[in-house]
Task: inverse folding
């Protein structure tokens, strides 16, 4: 397949993509500080989040979503079960398998953490000028379109 001919705009696009990538990572790392209050490590919180927002689902589906091997996910899920945050429910369509579902305590813990992260971010956004907040709001709408297209 022939490579695309470069245009003068492409280096600028690459720079924006690199900056956005870096900013996204830094933003998530800084907001992750709020997660310490949950008492869970990052892998357990991430798995719990997938179950809360995407469940019920099988262990294999959860492992695929988290991009880990099933034995790794088994250990994570067992820890979440022991903490009373996740439970297994027999699949109605396939009685041989079970689905992972969140408990009320698991959902509450996850949503409280999300609220802490959003509150920390909102505090910083509130310090921006009205013009900056409007620009950020428009940028957010643009980013939604970009993310949907990836």
Result:
């Amino acid at each position: 397949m022939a490579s695309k001919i470069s245009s003068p705009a492409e280096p600028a696009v690459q720079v924006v993509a690199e900056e956005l990538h870096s900013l996204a990572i830094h933003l998530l790392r800084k907001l992750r500080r709020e997660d310490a209050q949950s008492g869970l490590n990052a892998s357990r919180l991430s798995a719990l989040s997938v179950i809360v927002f995407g469940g019920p689902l099988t262990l294999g589906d959860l492992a695929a979503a988290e991009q880990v091997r099933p034995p790794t996910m088994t250990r994570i899920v067992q820890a979440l079960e022991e903490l009373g945050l996740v439970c297994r429910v027999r699949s109605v369509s396939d009685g041989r398998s079970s689905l992972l579902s969140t408990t009320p305590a698991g959902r509450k813990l996850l949503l409280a953490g999300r609220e802490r992260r959003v509150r920390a971010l909102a505090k910083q956004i509130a310090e921006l000028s009205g013009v900056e907040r409007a620009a950020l709001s428009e940028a957010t709408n643009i980013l939604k379109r970009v993310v949907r297209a990836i």
